[in-house]
Amino acid sequence: MKKTLRAALAMLAGSMLLLSACQEKPKEKKLEKVRVAEVTRSIFYTPEYVALAKGFFKEEGLDVNLTTTWGGDKTMTALLSGGADIALVGSETSIYVHAQGSNDPVINFAQLTQTDGTFLVSREKIDNFSWDLLKGKTFLGQRKGGMPQMAGEFVLKKHGIEPHKDLKLIQNIDFANIANAFAGGTGEFVQLFEPTASIFEKEGKGHIVASFGTESGHLPYTTFMAKESYMKKNPATIEKFTKALYKAQQWVAKTDSKDIAKAIEPYFEDTDPGIIETVVERYKSQGSFATDPILDEDEWNNLQDIMDEAGELPQRIGHKTLVNTDIAEKVK
């Protein structure tokens, strides 16, 4: 009796194993690949890295492949040539493309940063800084036609400084080499992004004396954009992408700088964690990170005012022509 029972149980167990083996495993949801080209790698773009690190893109069914293209021209070339689906770059680039008569305009659909991201760094420590101290000095600025340079000149003029008359202005150094040039002894003042500005301050190579971001006001400094044809063909993809970004923006807004810095550390392996936290806090405190992806008309007009002031605005473009807020508003 016992032998018969054991045999029956063994057969039942075997049948269950066989049945289990025959059953198909549930298929994992296939993620949609999206190629994103970012203009540079910067803590200024923190919400983007949070969306990747916290898995917000994957939650929306997207596999985002991020490439750093190092420069506005290269980023836009990647987008226009089909080398990228979405670009993270200054909104002014979409205006430049439109002015050249593109049949497939580049549309801004989600804002990432809403202030300038550069800081004024002095070679010497200044206890009581005032902008007129720059007059007659050698100023190492950013590339002509780029948003950092235009915002920088806007702020200087706001403080009564004519950049091309009152300063010894240097603008012919490549973006990637500006910091090295200053460290090598060129210029008494320099306009730098983070974390370079904070690193220089920590190493005693310079001292942060002012923020161009707080001085220039709100503007769509860096936005996610795509060709109109891509957006029409992939509306669900754009919506999912924007939704994931909004989750990240809200997470950043509600989280302290230390935890934010820890989340994005993998994207800045060569940067001291303490510096990352300092930079995140600096950008967060001055409101550089947009808290939602909506690029409103006031910001768009401020951008064009700054471009116009710098003599770089080819033509004034209506907000609705190159900006799509429908998706961002739906997501919010």
UniProtKB/TrEMBL annotation:
It comes from Neobacillus piezotolerans. SUPFAM superfamilies: Periplasmic binding protein-like II. Residues 1-21 form the signal peptide. The keyword Iron-sulfur does not apply. Belongs to the bacterial solute-binding protein SsuA/TauA family. PANTHER family: ALIPHATIC SULFONATES-BINDING PROTEIN-RELATED (PTHR30024), TAURINE-BINDING PERIPLASMIC PROTEIN (PTHR30024:SF47). This is ABC transporter substrate-binding protein. It is found in: Periplasm. Keywords: Signal. Its main location: periplasm. Residues 46-254 form the SsuA/THI5-like domain. GO terms for cellular component: periplasmic space. PROSITE patterns: PROKAR_LIPOPROTEIN (PS51257). Pfam families: NMT1 (PF09084).
